[in-house]
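Whiteboard transcription, Tuesday session. T.W. wrote the structure tokens on the left side:
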């Protein structure tokens, strides 16, 4: 109902002033955060995603996420909206590439930009989350967005632009991806040991998905798409980093197939087919 009545455009207009200024005082801060929370709820659904893209929401969120004049909390919320909009929705991924949003995305992926704002926004708020928790959440948001770009884009030009980012600066972003994988695996194994006895397989998976497992699988999907690109330098670097960890390409393929098995909803079969093709190339 909100989307049908033009609510998406109205919320974006209300958010627009905060791209160049921070809220003045607690009440306005809460108002600003509520606007972003409403927007994120809207872009969880396909209809809301379409309205968001049509209303140039991708452009506005990119501006807010990289604006040094915006409040840190607003920059973080804008990045969250980008992630939700791109999840399982190729038109948003295409728009993000077209409006030069890759710089914003990969700056956060490397721990700069919106990711740095995340840490700043989490300080001094009396929140229960530790600094390590908020950093992990920020990392996972970045990995989620990059995974959407790597798996939802089918046209060669845009996908190549995304994957080419991992070649820059002597594969520094690929190195970063493996650093994050190490971190997620550590969290996953720790959480697995702490699980209560008596859980069946489905219950165990539900408990572990938000404790590193989901992000591990997303990293696997990104690595599979990178390998499937056919770039020999990228493939050699991935093989080297896997070998350093005592793992092979079968590890990546298994992560992809585990993710495919958990995918549901609209467009699930098309995504599963793309990922299965990538996994097959990894194993070849």
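and on the right, the sequence the group agreed on:
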């Amino acid at each position: 109902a909100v989307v049908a009545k033009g609510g998406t455009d109205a919320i974006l207009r209300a958010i627009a002033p905060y791209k160049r200024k921070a809220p003045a005082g607690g009440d306005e801060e809460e108002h600003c955060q509520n606007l972003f929370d409403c927007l994120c709820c809207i872009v969880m659904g396909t209809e809301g995603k379409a309205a968001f893209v049509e209303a140039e929401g991708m452009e506005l969120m990119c501006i807010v996420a990289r604006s040094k004049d915006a409040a840190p909390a607003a920059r973080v919320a804008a990045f969250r909206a980008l992630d939700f909009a791109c999840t399982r929705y190729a038109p948003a991924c295409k728009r993000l590439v077209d409006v030069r949003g890759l710089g914003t995305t990969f700056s956060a992926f490397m721990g700069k930009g919106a990711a740095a704002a995340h840490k700043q926004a989490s300080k001094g708020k009396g929140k229960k989350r530790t600094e390590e928790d908020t950093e992990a959440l920020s990392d996972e948001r970045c990995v989620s967005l990059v995974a959407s770009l790597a798996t939802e884009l089918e046209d060669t030009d845009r996908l190549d632009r995304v994957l080419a980012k991992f070649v820059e600066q002597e594969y520094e972003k690929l190195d970063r991806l493996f650093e994050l994988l190490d971190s997620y695996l550590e969290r996953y194994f720790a959480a697995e040991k702490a699980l209560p006895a008596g859980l069946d397989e489905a219950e165990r998976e539900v408990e572990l998905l938000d404790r590193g497992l989901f992000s591990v699988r997303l990293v696997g999907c990104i690595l599979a798409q990178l390998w499937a690109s056919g770039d020999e330098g990228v493939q050699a670097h991935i093989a080297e980093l896997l070998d350093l960890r005592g793992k092979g390409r079968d590890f990546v393929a298994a992560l992809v197939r585990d993710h495919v098995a958990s995918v549901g909803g609209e467009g699930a079969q098309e995504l599963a087919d793309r990922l299965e093709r990538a996994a097959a190339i990894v194993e070849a």
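Someone added at the bottom: The chain is about 75% helix and 0% strand.
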